Amino acid sequence: MQVPRLPPHASGAPALSVLDMHAGGEPLRIVLAGWPEVRGPTLLAKRRYVREHQDGLRRRLLLEPRGHRDMYGALPVRSELPDAHLGVLFLHNQGYSSMCGHAVLALARFALDSGLAPPPPPGQAEAQVRLHCPCGPVTAFVPWEGGRSRGPVRFHSVPAFALATGTHAGPGDLVVDVPGKGEVVVDIGYGGAFYAFVDAKRFGLDVCSSKTRDLVDAATAVTEAVKVQVKIHHPDSEDLAFLYGTILTDGKDAFTEEPTTNICVFADAQVDRSPTGSGVTARIALQYHKGLIQLNQTRTFKSSTTGSLFTGKPVKETKCGEFKAVVVEVSGQAYYTGAASFIIEEEDPLKNGFLLK
């Protein structure tokens, strides 16, 4: 059967061509063509420009009827960093993230396979892909065999740190008053994005067996409370100083060879299907801050929704402004799932997308 041509669509609104991937079950829709020029001298300026002038395209690309409330996107843009192979803006159901680990795992394969980054020199089995994310530059390491990317990808994070911790020991704890749930001790860690962390058992829940809706409701309540009661600060840029979401854990923060399970709820109650790469980074930073893990010790993190696994380990001590920080290596597998072209008809009353609550 001959592949049909695209039907007519709105003049001045070219089709959006995309490549779909996933890492750990979390989708990633990469924009290939059709997005107009993104202006701005820096990546963060480009992020602001898209938010202020092109947000309708995000909605059209990610929300229903072309996507769904948990779709995730990546918009490749030009980076001002001379050694970056690719600059990227991260898109979700509410707006724009500063970092996304599962997307980095997928984008590193994409950049290598598409020729945006060169393959490794002869005799080397791994290529380096330098990605410029809104939180800063990260380097990914991609296995290369037979002229294509293969196997798990790993990346080194931006400096990650503990913003605030709850030790459950008394006066030094960070405590937030969560409406309907009382006072809750939380950790806040930065792994390219800020997350609040709470043991799910605090709410009588089990991340491995409780209903996803109950976990989402609890995590969302924590996020809303932290946003009101805690001042988020990042030493490099106020564009990075916001709470992205809450991660409920199984409470197994002490080092063990067994996987520790969590669920990440971010943006507008969006649920990550993967263990969350930037969440793994932040959680490792918190564990390192508390002395629960040492340099080059590897932990395995499991998604409560899909059972998929990422690994993380602290590889180098560093600083981020006034914070003691650590570079974290995250590893996981990304896969291609398809390609598509999306069109817009101006008379379509739902052309700008919608979310079901």
Biggest sheet statistics: 19 strands, mixed
Which architecture of the largest domain does the CATH hierarchy give at level 2? Answer: Roll
Rg over CA atoms: 20 Å
How many structural domains does the protein architecture include? 2
The CATH topology annotation of the largest domain reads as Diaminopimelate Epimerase, Chain A, domain 1
* CATH homologous superfamily grouping of the largest domain: Diaminopimelate Epimerase, Chain A, domain 1
Taking the alpha carbons of the first and last residues, their distance comes to: 40 Å
Q: Helix count, per DSSP? A: 5
Q: How large is the share of residues in beta strands? A: 35-45%
Short description:
The protein has 2 domains: 144 residues, Diaminopimelate Epimerase, Chain A, domain 1 (Roll); 172 residues, Diaminopimelate Epimerase, Chain A, domain 1, CATH 3.10.310. It is globular.
Describe this protein's structure.
By secondary structure, the protein is an alpha+beta fold. It has two domains: 16-152 and 336-342, Roll (Diaminopimelate Epimerase, Chain A, domain 1), CATH 3.10.310; 161-332, Roll (Diaminopimelate Epimerase, Chain A, domain 1). It contains five helices and 21 strands. The strands form two sheets. It has a 19-stranded mixed β-sheet that branches. Strands 11-12 form a two-stranded antiparallel ribbon. α3 (101-113) crosses α5. The chain is globular and about 60 Å long.
